[in-house]
Amino acid sequence: MGATKGSAGSAGSVGRRRFVHLATGAVLIASLATACAEAEAGAGKALQASGSTTVAPVAADAAEALKAQGLNITVATQGGSAGGISQLGAGQIDIALSSKPVADKDRSASPKTDYVETQIGADAVGIIITKQVADAGVKNLTSAQVKGLFEGKITNWKDVGGPDLPVFVYDKEPGRGTREVLDKYLYHGEKPPPPPNSDNFAIVGGNLETRNKLESTPGAVAPLSTGFVEGRDQLAVVTLDGIAPSSENVATGTYPMSRPLYMVTNGKPKGEAKRFIDYILSDKGQPLLTKHGYLTLKQIGK
């Protein structure tokens, strides 16, 4: 009986030790699994920036530069400036890229969002035509002529000193920063008329799409960031009322179609969003604006 009792005790002791080891192992495995899951979640979470196709190239270059420092940033262009502002209001992104200020209607639509604009530079919007039309004599347009073109009242370039060639207008969709700059220039805050009922009029979205349409359509005209025209031999920028979209004219406000470029956040920038924006505002980040044909804060006296 003594031997039997000792064996039973030993067996019980072994069983208890095995249970402790198994329990400890289970806790360790669970801890490791939790740590891995948290690490994966942290690594997979990217700072989300979306909006203006004008601001996006600068944001994308900055994101690439910060990638080596461990900052993960996703840059998109859904819906242009208006889309970015709307997405920020809905809590879908961290930073809205915008080539226009946040409007009162945006703030009313998302009253819980504390829209804070950080200006990173400025841009000139040009009236862009084809080189064929420019070479034939169209170097300058008045505001009345631009209005006539976009309202469908001027339908042939010969009516403004150009070739005998039909005009094809590509206008930006409502909500785009470029469109708002054009409307302000032509209508001074008044509501613009509806688009003309014409086969030679179309609505376009982003800057790349607009540029592609201009280059592929004879007689085309469109509003577009002048930075997207640099180095494009088939396109030309006209002066407006005799004023060129030079850096000096934009900086002094003489050129009538310029605009600020923003990073917009919900509240003051903090954490990774602040790190991202601070980089763009820094001596390393500001040259990215020059690279894409925009003006730095220093160039506009800010």
UniProtKB/TrEMBL annotation:
Name listed for the protein in its UniProt record: ABC transporter
Organism annotation: Streptomyces showdoensis
Record has Signal as a keyword: yes
High-level lineage: Bacteria, Bacillati, Actinomycetota, Actinomycetes, Kitasatosporales
Annotated PBP domain residues: 39-284
Superkingdom of this protein's organism: Bacteria
UniProt-listed SUPFAM superfamilies: Periplasmic binding protein-like II
Keyword Transferase: no
Entry keywords, A to Z: Signal
